[in-house]
């Protein structure tokens, strides 16, 4: 290849898919150009992909614009094709040329390289990517040699315990590569700090789920690394999980925790970024021009990691430089179809501008990022009075109000009692975050245009666009404050609290508030749960359980006293901390709220006084009570919303509970009375806890696991029997069983003999004696959803031994006084 001309129309820095496509099109159009690459080969990012990696060509519905060919296939085949076509197209490539500075103005830029003379260009295209700047681990032991940030050939590793940190496409693909060959005998674990793989392609997530189901690798959700250290002859990785810390063997760590743009270099050219956030992208026009006239940014540096997007941008930017101002992006037909039903005859570009200007979570998205988001979203129009969704309707999407406003029906018995949500805000975020059914009916207050983001699109937006994450967090905190404290509060009343609130993650068992401390903050529990304990005579005495949606710490804030009890996380929790001074200012302006909290505090003071007065009588009873509390937390009570308990002093082992469960569920009992653990007289049988944030929901391909209006977690008929939920449940309450035939009516049984009749063996027995393997489905307790009278197991118990209770009723102060009297 040539050694680079001294003067060109366009200089392209970086030979990834975007840069290659731009250079190939410049050559095809006869433009003088140079493609500057710092290595001795093209497309260094893909060159460094693991050997044999299958490269995807998504989105499938997007056409490819490029002079180069690209389709899904092996890394080696794609690179060979590009090498050949770049040579055939006579693209001018300058290898081993690392750019050190770009100076000058539009029409006369100077590009300095470490070696060789300067290059002058009328325009510069930055297509440099971000892979050369990986985000390093920031935990103790991060400098140990067992950590690496690149995986070249998975086939080089045998008989190792390998942990992949990172839940994006790179991390998933590395884990799959390391675990695909059973002969390698690797034990491969991948960590994901959340329950969803929001940053990864759907196809990769599906492959990961299949590998997990086959036992080829271990997927650990809601888990993050805490420390790396050397153990007895091998490495160890300390993990923070939902239930506390755990240590696993780890011979090698592949850290794929993302990368950041070379911001200092880019800003040095004169290019501005959208914000000061470390993950922000450059500010760009629809034609990819940056704030530095004549400097264009495409590809991963512009926020587009997908290869097809990058190649289209490379083609388009050359067209723009050639004067083709009429060119529309390749996704134009797709977006035109999505927006066709909206009023006003506006163009795609006009609507995207409306979305970006009017919606708070979109305010820092460039038109290019907005286009990508819209490919995974829907836009809907509603007339005044039309229902967007109804109370108890299933749904996990989030809505952004682009034009108009909505009314939330807060009282199910009186639809006229409503709360407005104005233009620019969001709704539906509760279903997105918790997986619960819709909590209220929402109607259009006026002609309404909303962007409906799928759960995947919303979580990806929150995870990858810092401003969107902040906006969603701010809105959810504001609404939680208004709902929790009520007393006529307005958004203006809590504005200072919302701005000063700090989101904190608390590991299982970690103390949030310590008895006797003099701090003055108040906390809202957003996820997880807390236990409140008090030291009495040297013994920790359990006082209460605080589920998600509770607040704690207000007593010391209001009266200035020291902390009267210890509050610690039952499981991994997320809380919002508010400064006491700001909270007191809210109370000063709202006397009714202060009085309400004072009344609640009086009850707690009476409890504390009673305990102090009887401290000499607690002794071993208090120890036993606290041990019981710990047992219940260990058994999943810390994340439960409803659980079955059996008092073994009353149970006569009649098994009526199991038979009633089977009779209510087509002969398949969801309950195993004998299984499970006991402490003292308390038995927790194998039955669903209906967790606040269910493990089983985290990885259900057909989204068959839903949450009912009363909090019950159930599995609908779309279950495909993959078994992911069974593997993810830490309490062993889900099993895979044959799907029973449809139950016949009485007349069908009498007249035609269909189905089992009186005296016939149950289906659960008959199915074991039939030939073949019937299709299976996931079976778990659904709290007898839709059955009048509530859970059949409780109704069928003749002695009252079986009870279903919510966590805050497990250990009450009344029970405590009964035990110690």
UniProtKB/TrEMBL annotation:
Q: Could you tell me which residue ranges the 4Fe-4S ferredoxin-type domain spans? A: 642-674, 711-739, 775-808
Q: Which Gene3D superfamilies match?
A: 3.30.70.20, FAD/NAD(P)-binding domain (3.50.50.60), Jelly Rolls (2.60.120.10)
Q: Which SUPFAM superfamilies match?
A: 4Fe-4S ferredoxins, cAMP-binding domain-like, FAD/NAD(P)-binding domain
Any Pfam family: Fer4_11
Annotated Cyclic nucleotide-binding domain ranges read 361-462, 485-604
Q: Which UniProt keywords apply?
A: 4Fe-4S, Electron transport, Iron, Iron-sulfur, Metal-binding, Transport
Protein name, per record: NAD(P)-binding domain-containing protein
